[in-house]
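This section describes the prediction task in plain terms. A model, or a person checking by hand, is given the sequence of a single protein chain and must write out its three-dimensional structure as a string of tokens. No templates, partner chains or ligands are provided. The sample shown here is typical of the held-out split.
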Amino acid sequence: MVPLEIHVQGTSVLQRPAERGALSVAVSSDGLSQEMVSKQITSTSNQLQNMFKELAPKTEAGLPTETAPVTVFSMTSVRTRSWIPEDKDGNPLFRKYEASTQFEVIFRDFDRLGQVATTLLTMPHAEIKSTSWRLTDETMESMGSESRQMAMRNAVQKATDYADVVGRKVVAVEITDQYSSTRGRATQSLGRSGERGTKTSVSVNSLVLKPEDVELSASVDVRFVSE
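The expected answer:
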């Protein structure tokens, strides 16, 4: 009997409610005075650091407390640059200075995330770049195992469907992991003036950010041959 060989791709998609909200905040200033630009970005950055520290209390072991609204936050190094702009005729103007940095803050308390976002909308030199939705590392590890198994079962079922039609039995002899990806939809930039992205509404006191489900997908290529 001629050997039968079947190549199929197994896929899986899992969804879970978001467990964390990631807030990306840009801080920037520009102007003709290097000293003023430096003061502005330092003042706003210090204000944000103090805010986030208060929201991220730690245990003696350095871990977030069970009730901490923020589990972790980080700040990039301050970037600076200067340049001499030109007018429409190509004549040099006064030198301009610019400084910028960025914060990423991970919230477990989504109500507090909305309150902070509301505060940031009116804070000078601060701009909300995006919010996105995530899962904890523990959930991701568990989902990753489940999604890979689901993808493999999907491949086995496909191969079995084909083989049954021609009265054959097949076994897997080669497995190639293709990809595993996570998608938690991000809102658009909320900006400094209060523009709102998708899935965002406004309450009397603060923004209400509605978290999206986080989606994990996996794919595997499998080669089967007849027994």
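For orientation: The CA atoms of residues 82 and 97 lie 4 Å apart.
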